[in-house]
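Hey L., structure's done. Input below.
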Amino acid sequence: MLRRILFFSVVFGILALPSPVSSASIQTQAAVDWIVAQQQNDGGFEMAGFPGFETPDAILAIAENAQTETAWSSTAARAAVEAIQFGGGGPSPLDAIDDLAESTPTAGLAAKLIVLNVLPLGLDANDFDPSGDSPDPTNLVLALDAGCGANTASFGFLADTLYAAMAKKLLCGSAPPAAVATIKAAQQSNGGWGWSGDPNGTDLDVDMTSLAIQALVAAGVDLSDTALVGGLEMLARGVKADGSWEAFGNSDPNSTSMGILALRAAGYDPADQCWRDLYAPERAGAGYGDPAAWLISQQQSGGRIASPSDGWGINTIATSQTVRALGAAWTPVVRNTAKACPVSTEFLAEGSTGPGFETWVLIANPSETETIVARTSFLTGAAPVSGGAVQIAPLSRCSIKVNDFVTDWNVSTRVDGLNGPVVAERAVYSTGAGRVGAHLGQGLGGPANDWFLTEGSTGPGFETWILVANPEALTAEVKVGLLTGSGPGPEIVFSLAPGTRRSVRVNDYVTDWGVSARVVSTGAGVVAERATYVSGDLRRGATDSPGTPAGSNDWFLAEGSTGPGFETWILVANPDTITADVTVGFITG
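Output:
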């Protein structure tokens, strides 16, 4: 446990969220109040008794809590820290780190002070003497190495090198390439980094891995680089269902705070499980909680964040790190552009896996270079069912038999391309004496409040269904209006709960050779399809079409044949209140 405590004296200090979490503002103020109450007589916060362990982190937490605008204010940060004086007029936290820096700081300590305190408070790293009591101020820049031109490979321990890479980015505009190579070379086969920096290690060290991710992002390493991919995969495998990460077998606020910061550096929203499903597809559909919410749940009545390490003595580290992970205005020092996750979503309203039906979801990856992770989920008349996630190689296709995941007369599908666009279709087969009938539908790009379905017939020998799914989080109030050759038909009205699907058998409401439908929803958007079967025991013929969200004055229909053995129909519906004059033209070979 002592190693864990000493580790944080070097490693932690970076904050990730791009703006404060408003729902946590009361909690973070209480946490900072508790930190301030722990101030020691030298102005610092070293409750554990290890110089440099807690004070730099506590200072940044206080500075973070002082931010009130979108842009970081070093003036507000410094004023908040300077105002905290022991006993109301004694040393401030700046006096404590001044004394710390005067003791010939190592490169690692200099880097940590630069990243966590000096630059966010607007202090001078070349002439560091915030107390103004030294004739020879400390040059923290030269304590790192020889300056911006130096291509230093190592700054001490691995944690020192990680902090130094970020400090050099802030001071010089770039991290030393040799240091980046050192960081990459220390990565373990499990994708993570351990305290010792030994690539042959097997540690599942969330704290060091998260700091390494931040350092590599700061150094300009692309998110597709195997080092970053491996680190994010390690975090994705390790995050628990409640949103926490573990250290030494227990859910831990230090590790959870660090995990949040790493995800923010990579450009992901920690509250959304999409990042986890992307980097650990085998976990898609498993429970996922918001890591920030888990951190807040660990707060005690006095404002302190409880930690499994409290049994070894309470200190400020867990509380300071939580404040930064919830507030988030200064660091990570570099953040990737926010990643859309998922990149694409398609909805397939129709599907059935009840007796006599077989449904397949077909997903293609059109990318020539990138493997895409696609996630599926199925909406039924009850709760959604996860189809998990699959990796699809470039220019390849994947077939998912929906019957393997759910048995229900009503099944709609959502397909998410987590890191790139995919193309999805759905095939339904009538399974009697073999696959005697089938129809196919293309994916819809998203829910809408108005859908038009032109085709349909409920005359003798035909059966038509309207399939409506609600993929949103609110209940949809749905009205299905039927149009026939003699005018409007009945309206079917129903409520559709979030994440469910309903099938409307049109034959139950009207009998007509030509039936069109309009599906209107309020409260939430829906997706709609229409399936028509040549009725009989085996449904030997079928057609299907997804809805279109708007009418038009011009339509093109590429397919059609009137040769021997074929019969083609053009179906035209007018959902407006005025007469439409229609011209149909044909193009042949």
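Confidence is low (pLDDT under 50) at residues 1-24. The radius of gyration is 31 Å.

-- N.
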